[in-house]
Amino acid sequence: xxxxxxxxxxxxxxxxxxxxxxxxxxxxxxxxxxxxxxxxxxxxxxxxxxxxxxxxxxxxxxxxxxxxxxxxxxxxxxxxxxxxxxxxxxxxxxxxxxxxxxxxxxxxxxxxxxxxxxxxxxxxxxxxxxxxxxxxxxxxxxxxxxxxxxxxxxxxxxxxxxxxxxxxxxxxxxxxxxxxxxxxxxxxxxxxxxxxxxxxxxxxxxxxxxxxxxxxxxxxxxxxxxxxxxxxxxxxxxxxxx
Length: 242
Ligand SMILES: [Zn+2]
Description:
Blueprint: H1 2-85, H2 89-172, H3 178-188, E1 193-197, E2 200-201, H4 210-217, E3 222-223, E4 230-233, H5 235-241
Parallel strand pairs: 1-4
Antiparallel strand pairs: 1-2, 3-4
Helix pairs in contact: 1-2
């Protein structure tokens, strides 16, 4: 009878050990998930701040170019007065050239301002999207932080239950197999056990001998000839035996 219970027992133990690993991993992941959401919030705030700096820089440049235009316009006015008062032809032509040069500079600055205004418009257009991203990231991080306490408690409770259940099942391992069981499980955790898939070990894929597969089907204690996993009958195969 011990052999019969051993076979079914290992399926249960495998399930519990996998669940223990998953729960422990989920618990470890919680602070990491929170940190990742908080980092996203910080990145969103940084993107908004960088955009504000960029817009400010464009506006400063814009004002500087407006001031330059004013200065060149004053220059044109001054040069025009000098030209109108010039009596010598050479002076007149030299002043004309200077006026043309100043006018050309004004035109260039005006073109540059148009480009700048376009850039400012584009950057301003992106602000609502950047602000929405901050709100979204903040909401998600805060919600996760609030729920995390309860989620942590639930996971810890489930882990305690699973470990208690597992300790009880471990006590049911037949005495003659305990040392082998403990050794394999200590080294591999949940990967110490595997269901038989047809005639093959589902952990390493190695086909088992007929007698060994037969033993698994009779719920005896069998380890894979290749990887050493404790083999057990899958629930589906067990149902087919009935
Ligand atoms: Zn194997």
